Automatic annotation (TrEMBL):
Domain of life: Bacteria
Lineage: Bacteria, Pseudomonadati, Bacteroidota, Cytophagia, Cytophagales
InterPro entries: AAA+_ATPase, ABC_SmlMolc_Importer, ABC_transporter-like_ATP-bd, Mo/tungstate-bd_C_term_dom, P-loop_NTPase, Transp-assoc_OB_typ2
One Pfam family named in its UniProt record: TOBE_2
Domain ABC transporter per the UniProt entry, residue ranges: 8-240
Protein name as annotated: ABC transporter ATP-binding protein
Presence of keyword Nucleotide-binding: yes
Gene Ontology CC annotation, any one: ATP-binding cassette (ABC) transporter complex
UniProt GO MF annotations: ATP binding; ATP hydrolysis activity; transmembrane transporter activity
Record-linked Gene3D superfamilies: P-loop containing nucleotide triphosphate hydrolases (3.40.50.300)
Keywords from the named record: ATP-binding, Nucleotide-binding, Transport
Length: 327
């Protein structure tokens, strides 16, 4: 394997607010160029972790290193933050009475005017903000504010970008515009990113690796495929997608399976589960069919609506796709 440079490293970070522990023994390596998604429910400690990585908050124990050098505590410095690491908070800070262009230019105020002009144009293009460049920040939509905050943070080409819930509160259109902007960033800027989200679809789509945070602890780190297909336990499985519980009579173990792994069969003798259709839900690109028998419920997906409520169905699956619930 290539010996990749580690940009940012958190070692054994713990943090409590008063007597309440919020983060316990968190260690993360962020290689150059990697996009690391932190996936966790609300209150799991995501924003606190990002503030510690972004040098806005000191951990109680543990250390943060940047390019191999341990950084001094934030409290020992005159200013919070760190030029090479840019954090975009959940409530992004813009100058409300300045235009988009002025907000972005402000970050570049000490630069040569010609460079500044060119860089601002680049940033407006990457973040698709050209059409609102003269709009005051306070009049922008949520999606435009989010992209202005990103453009502003990128102005000085940070090595590490930290994004707190970048897609939260965005409608579908703005999500797509931001997604395109992020895709552009990944291609054009050689930077690493840690982004925090409670939406598994975003974590799965955008991460090179995902760290799952539960009650302030990282319970799994892996590629999106590893976390989705080989979750360490049913908590991670449910956080990252839908699951069906199975009753494994033979082993007595609690087992589960993803709905997309369940297939319909016309041959009752080949089926592992049979029951009646209880509900059919349309999800745009597929139909979710929920069935039940005396033992329990099972959901599976169809591309067409070829079943009706009350129909009897015979279902099968490969034992390879059955997962055993961990502790
Ligand atoms: P997330 O971003 O995953 O929702 P946070 O890091 O914001 O989680 O919060 C984690 C826990 O710490 C929550 O229970 C929250 O109420 C608590 N918390 C966050 N900030 C503070 C603070 N400044 N003082 C006291 N408790 C806090
Ligand atoms: Mg948060």
């Amino acid at each position: 394997m290539k010996n990749t440079k580690i940009m940012l490293q958190a070692s054994s970070i713990s943090k409590s607010y008063g007597s309440v522990p919020v983060l316990s023994d968190i260690s993360i390596d962020l290689p150059a160029g990697e996009w690391l998604g932190i996936l966790g429910e609300s209150g799991s400690g995501k924003s606190t972790l990002l503030k510690i990585l972004g040098r806005f908050l000191d951990a109680d124990t543990g250390s943060i290193s940047f390019k191999g050098n341990e950084l001094p505590p934030v409290s020992s410095e005159l200013m919070r933050g760190y030029d090479a690491i840019k954090l975009i908070h959940q409530e992004f800070e813009l100058f409300p009475n300045q235009t988009v262009e002025e907000n972005i230019s402000y970050s570049l105020r000490f630069y040569d005017p010609a460079y500044k002009k060119e860089r601002v144009e680049d940033l407006l293009e990457i973040t698709a903000l050209g059409s609102v460049r003269n709009q005051k920040a306070k009049l922008l939509s949520g999606g435009e504010k989010q992209r202005t905050a990103i453009a502003k943070s990128l102005a000085e080409q940070p090595d590490v970008l930290l994004l707190d819930e970048p897609f939260a509160h965005l409608d579908n259109h703005n999500r797509r515009v931001l997604a395109d902007a992020i895709e552009g960033l990944r291609k054009q800027q050689k930077m690493s990113c840690v982004f925090v989200t409670h939406e598994s679809a975003d974590a799965l789509a955008w991460s090179d690796r995902i760290a799952v945070l539960k009650d302030g602890e990282i319970i799994q780190i892996g590629t999106p495929q590893e976390v989705y297909n080989k979750p360490v336990n049913s908590y991670v499985a449910e956080l990252t997608g839908d699951i069906n519980w199975l009753n494994d009579q033979e082993s007595g173990k609690k087992t589960f399976i993803r709905p997309e792994k369940i297939k319909r069969t016309k041959h009752p003798e080949k089926s592992k589960w049979s029951g009646k259709v209880q509900a059919i839900r349309f999800h745009g690109n597929h139909w979710e069919v929920r069935c039940a028998n005396k033992q329990g419920d099972l959901a599976f997906y169809r591309n067409r609506r070829d079943l009706e409520i009350g129909d009897e169905v015979f279902l099968t699956y490969s034992s390879r796709d059955v997962m055993v619930a961990g502790e």
